[in-house]
Structure formats: C-alpha cells, structure tokens
Amino acid sequence: MTATTPNWLELEQKYDSGVYNKHQVVMVKGKNATVWDSEGNEYIDCVGGYGVANIGHCNEDVVEAIKQQAETLLVMPQTLPNDKRAEFLEELVSVLPEGMNRIFLCSTGTEAMEAAKKFAITATNGRTKFIAMKRGFSGRTLGALAFTWEPKYREPFKGVMDQNVEFITYGDIEALKAAIDENTAAVIMEPVQGEGGVRPGAVEFIQAARQLTKEKGALLILDEIQTGFCRTGKMFACEHSGVVPDGMTLAKAMAGGVPIGAFAMNAEVADRMPKGGHGTTFGGNPLAMAAGVAAIRFMKKNQLWKQAEEKGNYFMQKLREIGSPKIREVRGLGLMIGVELKEKSAPYITALEHEHHVLTLQATPLVVRFLPPLTISYEQIDQAVAAFKTVLETVEG
Ligand SMILES: *Cc1c(COP(=O)(O)O)cnc(C)c1O
C-alpha cells in the first residue's frame, strides 16, 4: 500500500457497528469465481457472497443490464407499474413450480421471511402458531429470527420474540405430526439447511410435511433463499422431492448480486391478504428488476443447474478422496457443500485463506462450507481441494 492510499481496513473497522468478525483483508474486485484484494492477490471464492454470486461475480449480462437501467430509471414504487418489473415477474414465474404465480417483491431474504409470515397468517384466518426446524436459519429481523434456531442469535432478544414457534428436529416426521395442529399457520423449512451445517433434507420428510400441512389446513413454506437459483443442481431444491409448497422465500442469487427478495406463493395465499396489508419501498425497484431478468435468463441459457450438479458431484468426490482422518463427513447437494470435521473448522478456514487464498465459510463450529459461484472452473475446484488437503495435513487443530 502506498502512503497516499487510505487504510481501508482501519477505516472500516473504526466506523463499523462491530457486529461482524472481520477478516484482515480488503476485497476490491471480482470476476466469476475469482476475487482480488487491495494488494492484488487473487483468491478462489468459495464464499460466493454467502450464496449470492451463483452466476459469477460481475456477470457480463447483469452488468450490462444494470448499466442500461441506471441510465433509464432507478426508482418507481410498486403502486406505479414498471416495464422491467413486469418483465421480471414473468421471468421469475416461468422458472417457479407450477401454480406458484403470485409474487411479493422485497429486497432481502429476511424480508421475504417476514412477508411469508404475514401472508401465512392471513391465508389461515389468523392462525398464530408456526413450526420451524432445529438448526434452521431464516434471517435476523425479529419476525424471521423467531424461525431461526441458533440460540446465540435468539437469546439476547428473546423477551420480544414470538413465543408461538415450535422447533422440531429436521427430518423427524413423528415430531412434525405431533406438533402440527388446528392453530398452525405454517411449517417452515429449508430444503437443505445451510447455516445449520449443510444438511440436505430427506425427501420423505419434505413430502410428509406437504401431506401433513395439507391435512391440517396449514401452509408449507420452503425457504429457498440459499438453495434456489440452481445452487443444488435444480432451479429450486424442492424439485428434488417433487414437492410444490404454498409459499417459497427467495433472495440471494436472484438478481446476480443486486439486493432483491421475494415471497412467491399460489393465488389462494395471495388473495387472502387485504390490499395495503403489506408493502415495502425498495421492493421491485427497476434496477433490481433489470438485474434479475438478466440473471434468470443467464441461468436458463446456460442450464446452470446442470453445471451445479456436475461440478458439485465432482467437488464432493474429490473432497471424499482426500481421505483425511480429520474428516467426519462430506455432504451436500449440487454446489452447496459441507465438510464436517472431527474438530473445530475455524483454523482450517483461516489457513485456507491466508496460506492458499481459498475463501470458504463456516457452518456450525465443525463444518467448512463451500458455496462457490456455479461458474467456477474445474481447475479452480482442483486447486481448492488440493489446498484443503494440504491444510488438513499441516494445520494443528
Ligand atoms: C441468507 C439466508 C436468509 C436471510 O437472508 P438475508 O438476505 O441475509 O436477510 C434466510 N434464510 C436462509 C436459508 C438464508 O440462507
């Protein structure tokens, strides 16, 4: 760094709220699955913006769409129809499961969960009980936090949290049967738990949830915020079980990196919400809509789900071939991959970044999570696996 360059790291740390555990590096540029820091070092990015960068960093189609839209119209509230919004809604519905054709637009995943919660209440005539999953993650705003299991996220705020959320063991059909009743508005789950350690849900469990919610007049809401948009080898993870939910929360990769969120639902759910019952200023803004159109078209044009499936299988195979005694399990679906160690994963994640310039993230204290852009090259996968093998051999846990 030259004397005239501001110390970005120091500035950011000085003024940030302090809630984030910041790495000692300043990231300045990205392309596909590669990112660069302010010193010009190159990294293989298996963090992928926490699962946002599915179509690669600075995807050319999205960049072009943003440039054009930025010169045309940036903001238009949802009471005033907009050409890009109409185009986006049609594009999104074209990839959603049959019957999910009504969309509430917002700007983040947690907001999509908030919408899901309100729509579930109105769709069930004011039922108030929700069933969520142990190890589940649904976001950090208070309404969504009520569905997020991790006690350390919930504890400080428990005094103002919904008490009417029952957490059951993910995969336990009997527990779900016992929990669901005439006051249940919705059952909420991720098709593959992400934050909770990368745990694919059993097909029979998701199908049973579909059946049981139907019987009790409750909604099944699938949180596809991380699993959606090709991540797991299908456009949406629910396709693995053939289950069509009543509502689906979407965000992360939907607009190629621009903030966006949505609650997708069927007409029965949508029609029960009164006019003015919900709303948001930034939802459906033309910039996000233009980016979203380009992102979804890129996924379709390149059959990105296939790439995720093939590269994911290859990646997991290579990780299993490492055969380290420190590895308890390699699991995942598509390019949503977790390696559970028999010891804390943090030292290995740090060594991967510092010594090999491979960025990965944690999911529970024991798991190393890989969420690369789905456009990652096989060569980069090989490099990431070789680096992981080396740190498993050299780092003391
Ligand atoms: C990231 C995530 C959220 C929250 O999304 P934000 O955009 O961070 O608010 C909710 N659910 C799941 C499964 C996620 O992965």
Automatic annotation (TrEMBL):
Annotated binding of substrate, by residue: R140, T280
CDD domains documented for this protein: OAT_like
Keyword Transmembrane helix attached: no
Quaternary structure note: Homodimer.
Catalysed transformations (reactions): [amino-group carrier protein]-C-terminal-gamma-(L-lysyl)-L-glutamate + 2-oxoglutarate = [amino-group carrier protein]-C-terminal-N-(1-carboxy-5-oxopentan-1-yl)-L-glutamine + L-glutamate
Keyword flag Transferase: yes
Cofactor(s) required for function per UniProt: pyridoxal 5'-phosphate
Residue positions where N6-(pyridoxal phosphate)lysine is found in the record: K252
Cofactor detail note: Binds 1 pyridoxal phosphate per subunit.
Function field: Catalyzes the transfer of the amino group of L-glutamate to [LysW]-aminoadipate 6-semialdehyde, generating [LysW]-gamma-L-lysine.
NCBIfam families in the cross-refs: argD
Amino acids binding pyridoxal 5'-phosphate: G109, T110, F137, D223, E224, I225, Q226, T281
SUPFAM superfamilies documented for this protein: PLP-dependent transferases (SSF53383)
Highest taxon listed in the record's lineage: Bacteria
Principal subcellular localization: cytoplasm
Name the UniProt record assigns to this protein: [LysW]-aminoadipate semialdehyde transaminase
Organism: Deinococcus cellulosilyticus (strain DSM 18568 / NBRC 106333 / KACC 11606 / 5516J-15)
Assigned EC number: 2.6.1.118
GO cellular component, one term: cytoplasm
Keywords: Amino-acid biosynthesis, Aminotransferase, Cytoplasm, Lysine biosynthesis, Pyridoxal phosphate, Transferase
